[in-house]
Write a structure and sequence with these properties.
alpha/beta; single chain; binds magnesium ion; binds 3-hydroxy-3-methylglutaryl-coenzyme A; 8 strands
């Protein structure tokens, strides 16, 4: 059955901006994060401590973390692929970190330069250190509904296997990601059910890219199962530089509009969120891709 309330995890400042061609100044990132929090966002990805050679757009994450005015009760999370990233995250005062692996071997090689098993080995000391430091760790499982690489088939059992390993390592949330937005509702349910067979539904989250316009429908399938942890990105920003064909995440304002209509609590002020979508899109020199941001602006 549907949850009464959800936790929205805002990924716009990380997944959203990591893929932008133009440089986004630290001050704009800081303003984006602060506006989102002002709109009611309580969990937000502020950046990644990854190699600046691999993802130059996130190279100023330490500055972003230093410059944001933090609000109590808000989770400021960063991606950390290894111990180097973890040390930087801890130094920056991140209140949560995220490890990321996936169900596609080809994507793992392209994205983090190692096999899926090797990525889990790299996370082991990160999990250990985070436990000692009292920093909660969330995990992301990429390519759960399809691989960006031709011919590679992703089995639900593989998604479940990686999810279970991450959960058993101590991750408090496992976010199942449709990196390239190819899923459809029945397929989504099949994969999510395979995962729900091996880890508790309460710790499962979903992270849908909207490449084929299926994200809201897939989200609805996840909600129907009772999943209450949703990733989304203001203005529908997003993509992964190492996943050919991936476009933006499901837009936070589209999700909030849908949930408001369903009577599912988000704690977010839709008007402020839409203003924020126009703010960041204005900086990027385009309109937000989301229907709701455009519909509400037109009024
Ligand atoms: P590597 O080259 O194999 O790493 O990259 P290495 O350990 O051999 O180190 C090479 C150099 O990188 C060294 O520097 C290290 O110090 C440095 P050098 O000696 O050459 O000057 N280095 C680092 N620097 C900063 N931060 C670090 C770090 N680690 C090593 N953490 C590595 C391996 C994982 C570092 C690299 O592949 C990488 O940074 N990948 C990140 C890719 C990424 O961020 N992708 C996007 C995020 S995932 C995503 O978007 C999907 C998601 O949204 C869910 C979904 O939609 O599917 C989450
Ligand atoms: Mg993503």
């Amino acid at each position: 059955s549907y949850p009464a309330a959800v936790r929205l995890f805002e990924v716009g400042a990380r997944d959203g901006l990591q893929n932008e061609k133009q440089e986004v100044p630290t001050a704009i990132k800081v303003e984006l994060i602060e506006r989102l929090v002002e709109a009611g966002v309580t969990a937000i990805e502020t950046g990644s401590f990854v190699s600046p050679k691999w993802v130059p757009q996130m190279a100023d994450t330490d500055k972003v973390m230093a410059e944001i005015t933090r609000k109590s009760g808000v989770v400021y999370s960063v991606l950390t692929p290894n111990m180097t990233g973890y040390e930087m995250a801890r130094a920056s005062g991140a209140t949560e970190i995220e490890v990321f692996s996936g169900a596609s071997e080809a994507f793992s090689q392209k994205n983090i330069n190692c096999t899926i098993d090797e990525s889990l080995d790299r996370f082991a000391p990160v999990m250990e250190a985070a436990k000692q430091d009292g920093i909660p760790v969330r995990a992301s499982v990429s390519c759960a509904l399809g691989s960006p690489f031709k011919g590679e088939v992703i089995l639900p059992a593989k998604v479940a296997d990686v999810s279970k390993k991450l959960y058993d390592m101590g991750c408090y949330e496992v976010s199942i990601a449709d990196t390239i937005g190819v899923g459809t509702p029945f397929k989504t349910r099949e994969v999510l059910e395979a995962v729900a067979n091996v880890i508790p539904l309460e710790v499962m989250g979903v992270h849908f890219h909207d490449t084929y316009g299926q994200a809201l429908a897939n989200l609805s399938a996840a909600l129907q199962m009772g999943i209450a942890r949703l990733d989304s990105s203001v203005a529908g920003l997003g993509g992964c530089p190492y996943a050919p064909g991936a476009t933006g995440n499901v837009a936070t304002e589209d999700v909030v509009y849908m949930l408001n209509g369903m009577g599912i609590e988000t704690g977010i002020d839709l008007n402020k969120l839409v203003e924020t979508a126009w703010f960041i899109s204005g900086f990027l020199g385009r309109k937000p891709v989301s229907r709701v941001a455009n519909a509400m602006k037109a009024k």
